[in-house]
Fold:
Amino acid sequence: MINKSSPPIKIRSGRTVFHKLNADQRDLRDIYHWLLTLSWPQFSAFVLSIYVAINLVFSIFYYLGRPCIAGMESFSDAFFFSVETLATVGYGHLYPDTLYGHLAATAEIMVGMFGMAVITGLIFIRFSRPTARLVFSRNLVITNFNGQPALMLRVANLRHQAMAEAEFRMMFISEELTKEGEYMRRFYPLRLQFDRLITFPVALTLRHIIDKDSPLYGLDQEELKKRDVRILASIVCIDTVIPAPVQSQKDYTWEDIHFNHRFVEIYSDIDDETMAVDYGRLHDIEEVPGPIQSDGK
Structure:
C-alpha cells in the first residue's frame, strides 16, 4: 500500500519507472547534482526564475527604504537599479545616497558575485560533460551463427572519431519461481563472443551463443513472454577527443526479441582499403528461412 503522507520519488531506468516510497527527499547537499540532471530548458527556466526573484527582493528593499537611492521615483526604477547592481554595471544615473542604500547595494553585489561564479561553473560543467553518442539497434534477433543459435545485438558509434577501449555487456533478467513458491527476478550475465575492443570506429554486432550454459537455452517466444524476460545492454568506452569515459545503455523486453531473423548487411567494399557503412539500415532486420539449431550440431 502506498503511503500518501509523502509523494513518491520517481526513478527511471530504461522503460521501467520505479516509485521510491518513504524515502528521504533531496536535501541542500543534493542541489548541485539535481541542477546537473535538469534538461537545458529546465535549467534555463530555473536560472531565470532565481535571477528575477533576487532582483525583486532587492528592489523591494530599495523601494521601501526611499530615498536611499538618488533619482529613484518608481518601483520599476528600483527593479532596474537592482538589475544593474547585481550585474555590477552601474550606469550612474541612479546611485546609493544613504547608508541603508550603500549597505543594500553592497549585499546585492556580493550576492551577484557569488551567484555569477556558481552559474558560470554549472554552465561550464554542463557544456563540458561528455555525451556517449552510441546507438543500439531497436530489436534483438535470434538465429543460427556458425551452426549454433545466437542472440544478436547491433551497436554503432555516432561520433566521427573512433572510440577507444570499448567494453560491452549484456544481462538477462527473468521472472522465476523459487522452491518456496514465490516469484522473483533473477539476473544472469550473458557471455559474449567478445566483450572488449581496443578501437570502436563505426558499427558491429554483439553475439551471445545460446548453448547449454546460456539462460536462454531452450526458451521460445511463449516462454520468454511467460517469464517477462528483459535484456539490458551497456557500452563503456573512452572518447578520444576529450578524452573522457562515456557510457550508454538500453533495455529490451521479450517483445523486442525476434526469432529466425538477422540484421541486414550494412558493410560494403569500396576498394581494398575502404569500406562503406550504411547507417540508414542499422536497425533493419530480415527473416531467415529454416529452423534454429537447438544444439551445437
